[in-house]
Design a protein that fits this description.
Elements lengths: L4 E3 L5 E5 L2 H4 L7 H7 L16 H15 L4 E5 L2 H4 L8 H16 L3 E7 L5 H5 L7 H17 L5 E6 L1 H9 L11 H25 L4 E13 L5 H24 L1 E4 L2 E4 L10 E13 L9 E4 L16 H12 L5 E5 L10 H17 L4 E6 L19 E4 L4 E4 L1 H12 L1 E3 H7 L4 H4 L5 H4 L8
Parallel strand pairs: 2-3, 2-12, 3-4, 4-5, 5-6, 6-9, 9-11, 11-12
Antiparallel strand pairs: 1-15, 7-8, 9-10, 13-14
Helix pairs in contact: 3-5, 7-9, 8-9, 11-12, 13-14
Bound molecules: beta-D-fucopyranose (FCB).
């Protein structure tokens, strides 16, 4: 084995990402809580319940875990339904509570990146049409002002909205998120409203906190043609990618939202990103499929020989991460990896997934592509939306009944990486030996020494 150390720049941010509904518990006043009470919505009838009990104070012990494992940043979100439980009614106690949490992150040496919207909506918003209602845009911006006013002195980096493409797709096309609709026209309309909400939030934050860094967390899913020689597959892959991956980030550059059959001018959105937040998990293959007119006659799937996660949710495709990073670099902005990880209760795949994906980040860093930080999804197992507790993404395992946390080997691996600000061949050899020769090919220098040269 060749010994090598893949070093990262000084001040690189190493952290994990979480979201309010997935970790806080008892978020009873939002659309997701209501959704969880309905039969058949969540796998095995799971509910968020106490989640990781962060609202009850367990953020303290979890931030201590993050800090002890040498992380220096944390991405968390605040819950709109707690802060504004009814229209224009503000819960100052909830805001104080968040101040304590954010201050707690800082006290643990974790630079906070705060997301303002991560999938959940206050019930009153949902009941008034949710993101189909254009009024939600202004209401969101009003809420953002309130939050930034209360927390801005503690928060250097804001994420306005998490994965607007996933939200529009899952809630209005796939029907897996509330309100569970399946209507392409609605999904496109919601994308537009989310872009406008981001733009309004961007400007509001900068008005109140000129030095803030503001972006959104964009989900980039690699899309490769199932058969690269098929012009149809290639076209469909390009098309899916144009809608899912390209449309929103492009609109934030040039103020044009290009969607199938619609071209919307959104000039207020032009130039509204200080950084590009990238959530990357996997790549899917795209094939022509006559039986799926709803999905534009295409189908996304993983190939049979894919290195699949235990629930089949994610294929381990680090090359797709490289492509996503190259794509992100095209925007000429600093890049933060706002999410990346894999569900793996037994922690068999996670170590190599982490090593192989961080090597791609390192490659990007070495092209000077302005990658400033990496937030692993996630710190402790949490409530994974319609998949409930069936998926375990944590560096720490959680038993939601007892609230007991158990460290997985990946937590130690990540701690070593964060401490060294580097990914070394020794770390990979210890935690993911099966990929060492792939990651560090070649033979050690001693073995290559010409005859007569003493190897030390
Ligand atoms: C992302 C979500 C995040 C988490 C991961 C696994 O799409 O932003 O909340 O559920 O997937």
């Amino acid at each position: 084995m060749i010994e090598a150390t893949l070093s990262f720049p000084r001040r690189f941010l190493w952290g994990t990402a979480t979201s309010s509904h997935q970790v806080e518990g008892e978020n009873t006043n939002n659309d997701w809580w209501q959704w969880e009470q309905q039969e058949g919505r969540i796998e095995r009838g799971h509910r968020s319940g106490q989640a990781c009990d962060w609202w009850g104070g367990r953020w303290k012990e979890d931030f201590a875990r993050a800090a002890e494992s040498h992380q220096n940043a944390h991405r968390l979100s605040v819950e709109w339904s707690r802060i504004e439980p009814n229209p224009a009614v503000w819960d100052e106690d909830a805001l104080d509570h968040y101040r304590q949490i954010v201050q707690g992150a800082l006290d643990h040496g974790l630079i906070p990146m705060v997301t303002l919207h991560h999938f959940t909506n206050p019930l009153w918003i949902a009941e008034d049409g949710g993101w189909l209602n254009p009024r939600t845009v202004q209401r969101f911006v009003r809420y953002v002002r309130k939050v930034v006013d209360a927390l801005g002195d503690l928060v250097p980096m804001w994420v306005t909205i998490n994965e607007p493409n996933v939200l529009a797709y899952s809630a209005y096309l796939a029907g897996a998120f509330p309100p569970g609709h399946s209507d392409m026209g609605q999904a496109l309309k919601v994308m537009r409203h989310l872009v406008l909400a981001h733009a309004g939030a961007y400007r509001a934050i900068h008005e109140l906190q000129p030095g803030a860094l503001v972006g959104l967390a964009h989900h980039y899913r690699g899309m490769w043609p199932a058969n690269p020689r098929s012009p149809l597959d290639r076209r469909l892959a390009r098309f899916r990618s144009a809608v899912f991956n390209e449309a929103i980030p492009r609109a934030l550059v040039d103020g044009m939202l290009n969607l199938p059959g619609r071209r919307w001018r959104v000039p207020e959105a032009a130039g509204t990103q200080d950084f590009l937040g990238l959530n990357y998990y996997t790549v899917e293959r795209v094939a022509f499929d006559i039986r799926r007119p709803q999905e534009l006659f295409s189908r996304g799937f993983y190939p049979e020989d894919a290195d699949l996660s235990p629930t089949g949710f994610i294929a381990n495709e680090p090359q797709g991460f490289w492509e996503a990073l190259r794509w992100a670099h095209g925007f000429g902005l600093p890049i933060y990896i706002t999410e990346n990880g894999v569900e793996d209760a037994a922690d068999r795949l996670r170590p190599r997934y982490l090593a192989l994906h961080l090597r791609q980040v390192w490659r990007a860093v070495n092209f000077n592509w302005g990658v400033r930080g990496y937030f692993h999804w996630t710190l402790v197992d949490n409530f994974e939306w319609e998949r409930g507790w069936t998926q375990r993404f944590g560096l720490w395992a959680l038993d939601p009944r007892t609230q007991q946390r158990t460290k997985r080997p990946s937590a130690d691996m990540y701690a070593e990486i964060c401490r060294q600000n580097a990914l070394s061949s020794q770390t990979v050899a210890r935690y993911a030996p099966e990929v060492v020769s792939q990651m560090f090919p070649g033979r050690p220098a001693g073995e290559l020494a010409p005859e007569g040269v003493a190897s030390r």
